[in-house]
Amino acid sequence: MRITRREFLKKAGTAIGTAAYVLSEPMAAAESAEPPRNVLILMSDEHNPRYSSVYPCPGYPDFLHTPNMQEMARRGVVFEHAYCPSPLCMPSRSSFMSGLRNHEVQAYSNCSVYQERYNNPEYPGWIFPTYGRVLADAGVYTAYIGKMDTYCHSDRSGFREIISPGNRRPPGDCNIQRKPVAIRVGAHYVATEYGPREDACVHDAHLIDKAVNWITTTGRRLNAHGTAWTLTVNVGSPHFPHTCLLEDWALYPKTDMPRYAREQESAKHPFVMDHHLHFEEDHPDWTLENIAGNRRGYFGKVTFVDRMLGKLLSTLNKTGLSSRTLVVYTSDHGEMLGKFGMWRKCTLYEDAVSVPLIVAGPGFKPGTRVRTPVDLLDLNATMFRVLGLDAVRPRSWKGTPLQEIKRDDPNRIVFAEYHGHGKRASHYMIRKDNWKLIYYIDAPHQLFDLENDPNELVNLTDKYPDKFREMERHLRNICSPEEENARAERVIRAQLALVRRAYPNALNVRTE
Fold first, then answer.
1. Please, which pLDDT band fits residue 12 given cuts at 50, 70 and 90?
2. Range 446-453, long-range pairs (CB < 8 A, 24+ positions)
3. Domain interval for residue 371
4. Is residue 98 included in any domain, yes or no?
5. Taking the chain, what is the end-to-end CA distance rounded to the nearest angstrom?
6. DSSP letter string over 410-439?
7. Residue 57 near residue 454 (C-beta atoms within 8 A)
8. Helix 376-386, helix 89-98: angle, nearest 10
9. How many domains does the chain have?
């Protein structure tokens, strides 16, 4: 018998110690304290929140080990429906960094040739300040560790201190042709790249060690001198390849397979067919054994990320900075992990566009779960609020501080979009209350009732035409989907022309 998502969460919430919903009630602060002096953000890469013990959902495994995320949930607020601005690394991170929607910053893909425009006076609209620069100009010490991967090179990002940014070297990923959809030659390799490795996640562990050292030394020193700081820490896990440490691999001996595969109606959508084609997901290497192995490796990497989160939390406790620091765990986008036969992200289905968002610290009431949809632009706004610097945040930036968002607001709208590789055209998402619209260019639209259908199996577009029109109006109040698709196509074609001239060996695609 099918149960609703709310019923499922109500039952599961008892097991993980979460609070019940309070309808239409603003989040009350735990105490009337001054804004926290510091903000610490841990951003992982490609973490689908449904693969954790904090975000239970029907049809997903309930055995993942994420005790530090649970502890953060106990100490703070879980945002149950958090979304990235665009389900791809550079577009999502660019929006979070700039406070702008993806179509505004025009970072449509992981192709980095457009970074050259940043210093070109012919393109003044591309010069957007980052939150690191704006906060630094206001007197906050802004630090950044790990992958940046945004519309601008880290050297021009304006952070006071940058450690191991790992910039994507131009031209980046050039396999971005949309019409016809390019086939990414060799993309199937991830099917066999999984399992325990002694050297798995080594770079991420080093980044966390650097963060621990920074908090212990620089962070403490800055606070001792009365200076507020933000530290954004980025790790590459649980992004593929799904290799993990033996200790984490051993935690998941049970074979696990996606509950919803290619027989579902949602798996037959034309954009899903594009996805399969682009990423070579019909390749014979995608055996049942390799599907299960990739999922097991992903589970192990999620547990690794949780352990790294625990190190940061422990460091704050040891240094006495916990009470003065807002701690956030999130990710840049999700991962399909075999659902509907799809891997990676690059789609607006929940598994790819959802992100974990757990916030703990002064101003956030412990044990609270918020049902209202939010996104990473709201997190951007939250940093300014907790530092008492709302006034310096540019007015053109999007997002609302999370402290202002009600626990269950049926009228709040969240928007996401995707213009990148692996699809013939752009598509857009509108989330309002239980309803979600995916609006496609050159393909049938989809309308889902996520309360009763959290796995997006039943398209209700024809059954509820009035609801579809209402959701479409919300979309068009934000942008014209047709105009933004056309603009994205022009930029992509210009990028490809530049790549063919300057980086002819960078393309590794074919078309049918």
1. very low
2. 446/266, 446/269, 447/471, 450/5, 450/350, 451/4, 451/5, 451/6, 452/2, 452/4, 452/5
3. 5-173+195-409
4. yes
5. 43
6. TT-EEEEEE-STTSSS-EEEEEETTEEEEE
7. yes
8. 30
9. 1
CA distance 439 to 471: 9
Query: CA-to-CA distance for 359 and 246, rounded, in angstroms?
Result: 30
Residue 471 lies in a domain: no
- Report pLDDT digits (tens) over 98-148: 999 999 999 999 998 876 554 454 444 446 899 999 999 999 999 999 999
Counting every residue written for the chain, the total comes to: 512
Write the single-letter amino acid at 270.
Answer: P
Distances in Å between the Cα of 463 and the Cα atoms of 58, 448, 467 are 24, 11, 9
**Cα 167 to the center of its chain, rounded Å:** 19
What is the SS3 string spanning 196-245?
ECCCCCHHHHHHHHHHHHHHHHHHHHHHHCCCCEEEEEEEEEECCCEEEC
Q: Is the Cβ–Cβ distance between 274 and 182 less than 8 Å?
A: no
State the Cα angle at 84 between 178 and 404, rounded to 5°.
150
* CATH code (residue 44): 3.40.720.10
Whether 72 and 313 have beta carbons less than 8 Å apart is answered as yes
Residue found under tokens 């049902």: 371
| Among candidate residues 194, 336, 350, 193, the one with its CA nearest the CA of residue 276 | 336
Please indicate, yes or no, if residue 41 is contained in any of the structural domains.
yes
Interatomic CA distance for residues 133 and 131, integer angstroms? 5
Q: Which two tokens stand for residue 144?
A: 């950044």
H or E element at residue 142: strand 141-145
Q: Kindly state whether residue 372 falls inside one of the protein's structural domains.
A: yes
Helices H / strands E in the chain, number of each: 14, 19
Beta-carbon contacts of residue 451 (< 8 Å; ≥ 6 apart): 4, 5, 6, 434
The pTM (predicted TM-score) of the whole model is 0.93
